[in-house]
Amino acid sequence: MENNLNSANSAFSNGKGPLSTTSKALVNQMGICRICLEETDIKNLLSPCNCKGTAAYVHQICLEIWLKTSRVKTCETCKGEYEKVNKGLKPLMQLSLPRPTSDRWEDGADFYCTVLWIFLVGNVSSFWIRKGVFAFNTSLLSALNSRRLVMLWWFSFSVNCFYYFDIACQIYRRWIDDNSNFEWKANKHNIS
């Protein structure tokens, strides 16, 4: 019995006991990025969602590329939302121009139609300011030769205003996302 105690004491004093390996593991904790599968120091990884264990950690750059590619804002495993803290816009020389919300041709067409629609609304608004709404209605009536067509024009103009305003807001939100500096908010329960 005493031999066992002496061997245990010598193991702990030599740094070969279970406590020393645990403390070494805490000092040099390694984690694996679930996107690129590279093993790295846990300090270089973040845990942006509610996943636990080996699936909890990712490199910041891997997460950013994944989110730009997939355009998803939630984790596909735990369904937790990725949270980021906005740190303001990038410097003026690093800002990019607005662009369509995705690479689909429909979104590209919506983008260019929205730009044209903004110019049309600007022209109509400037006509209203200079001549008044009544003069605009009179010129519409003389051009279309029917009160029903004028009513149809106003209805379609209103519907298009709502639609293209929504598209313009989506383009603006994407432009802000693309041109903002931000930090990912890490979940505290996963960080050791």
From TrEMBL:
The transmembrane segments are 109-129, 149-165
Q: How does it sit in the membrane?
A: Multi-pass membrane protein
What's an example GO BP annotation here?
protein ubiquitination
Signal peptide: which range, if any? none
Q: Which GO terms describe its cellular component?
A: membrane
Q: What is its main location?
A: membrane
Q: Which domain of life is it from?
A: Eukaryota
Q: Which UniProt keywords apply?
A: Membrane, Metal-binding, Transferase, Transmembrane, Transmembrane helix, Ubl conjugation pathway, Zinc, Zinc-finger
Q: Which residues form the RING-CH-type domain?
A: 25-85
- Gene3D superfamilies documented for this protein: Zinc/RING finger domain, C3HC4 (zinc finger) (3.30.40.10)
Q: Which Pfam families match?
A: RINGv
Intracellular or extracellular location(s) = Membrane
PROSITE patterns linked:
ZF_RING_CH (PS51292)
A GO molecular function annotation here is: zinc ion binding
* Name of this chain's protein: RING-variant domain-containing protein
The species this protein belongs to is Ditylenchus destructor
Q: What is the taxonomic lineage of the source species?
A: Eukaryota, Metazoa, Ecdysozoa, Nematoda, Chromadorea
